[in-house]
Amino acid sequence: MTTAPAVSLSLAPHPELEPAPAGVPTGDLLGMLARHAQTLLAADQVWVFVCMQAGDATDSLALAASSPPGGERVPEAREAAATTLRGHGSRFRRVSFDESGISAIPIHFDGSAAGAIAAAWSPGHSLTERKTDVLRELAVLSAPILAARAQAATRDAGAAPVAGATGYGPALVAVVKDFDQLPALEDTRARVLRALARRHSATGEAIALIETDPGLVAAVLRAANSDLPRGRKRIVGVPAAVETIGPDGIVELVSDWPTFRLLSRSSWPVQTLTMHANATRFAADVVARAIGSTLRHELRAMALLHDIGKLVLARAWKAYPQRLNASLAAPEHRVAIERRLLGLDHAALGALLIERWGLPKGLATAVENHHGEQAHEPSTIVRLADMLAHHMHGHPIDEQSIVRVARAAGLDQPALRRILFDLPRSRGGRRADPSPLTPMQTKVLRLMAEGKKFKAIASDLGLSESTIRSHAHTMYARLGIVDRAQAVLLGVERGWI
Is the dihedral of CA 464, 468, 471, 476 positive or negative? Predict the structure, then answer.
């Protein structure tokens, strides 16, 4: 017996979304959706097929995307996809599972077959309800995109266009494809350039400024990861990115980066994003310190970029900021509304953007799961920080959810209550922590913060350069860090300098 899908997503194009321009490429987005689905399904491979002509014959299905690409089992997957299309109407999405270990689900759009999705697992796999829901949701998200692709193909061949190929799917594809740069706050960019223009570049100050701006974080991480040698670990933290690019490279990159101005009506969505991103970054710092996490800079980048998918939705649907105002519902409820109205939530869109920009997978995973229940430490901390930030803004949060997420992050209820009490009161000024440094190490650290090299510091203090290096490396070991940039940031954070 056929059953209705468990996910509640609207297949009809949303009336307030602007249609996408003609000819928008869709392969990249389908590929990213397939990769995310493969991760969620823990599948060996996922294929997305598009119907290039009417009917359910195997040869009418073309491979639109797969993760990983291609594979020897494409013919088996295509046959499973064609089989599941036969005899199934557009009202339900029935998942079939055959002895070869391949599951398939039909995709319909506006009453017509648009394609099918197939997934393969190793022997011993069972098709759980959760995996079935993931396949159904992928089918829903892929439907308008495949319809647009089939329409383009049939138009080129002189056939009649596929009905209903406009709407949220192509509109979101268009925005993702065009969203190449996240603007930075004009004032922040100016201060970064001033810090690096000094005779002794204040790299530590520049890093601290960059770590307050989502646009600049995205810019430096993209640049740092773009030329990494093969096999080298991807860069998630800003200090490592700045070290890789160098001060001159940062100046060149930042000078040409697009900006927005505060109090400009046209830039209100990105202003709102920046304010909430900074509140989340601050909360992530507090949580990381409370649980002893060593991922401080990585968490800052994740916190600053966790909501960039909202800018995609705001560009595709002009009424989005008003219809889904944060003051109206808890974050989890607003995400459910996004999925119901638009077919895709801001967390998934943010992850797609990050992956498209070539940023590390761990960053995309944290953004994608910051409203999920996955026990993944960075995602859990960012999710908790997001809730704490909404609490600071006076927005509603679900009490049971924040207690559960805090417990998953390693905080019991008394610790969570202390953070909730202290957080709004601790943003107004810097409270110095007891310093573990000697007076001489503190002097060296202050001069480092001014951007001075070891030779200049030695001259100022009347010591040899080797003595200054010895003080610095002893300080690094004591603080559990590896370089001067991290030392300066930590000193500023803790109020030691």
Answer: negative
Provide the phi-psi class of 463: left if phi over 0, else alpha when psi is between -120 and 50, else beta.
beta
Q: Out of 130-139, 354-363, 487-496, give the one with best mean pLDDT.
A: 354-363
Q: Tell me which of 178, 204, 239 is where a domain ends.
A: 178
- Structural domain including 475 reads 439-494
Whether residue 302 is contained in a domain is answered as: yes
Domain count, the chain: 3
Global pTM?
Answer: 0.60
Q: Which residue has the higher pLDDT, 151 or 329?
A: 329
Higher pLDDT, 295 or 112: 295
CA-nearest of 347, 352, 342, 365 to 34 is 352
Q: How far apart are CA 286 and CA 233, in angstroms?
A: 27
**How far from 415 is each of 51, 161, 287, 293, 412, CA to CA, in Å?**
55, 59, 10, 15, 5
DSSP-derived pairing of the beta strands 184-185 and 102-109:
unpaired
On whether both 93 and 232 belong to a single domain, the answer is no
Per the CB < 8 A criterion, the answer to whether 63 and 74 are in contact is: yes
Residues 412 and 471 in one domain: no
465 in Cβ contact with 223 (< 8 Å): no
Asked if 88 and 94 touch (Cβ cutoff 8 Å), the reply is yes
Cβ-contact 208, 282 below 8 angstroms: no
pLDDT of 443 higher than 80? yes
Phi then psi for residue 42, to 5 deg, are 55, 40
What is the rounded end-to-end Cα distance, in angstroms, of the chain?
A: 70
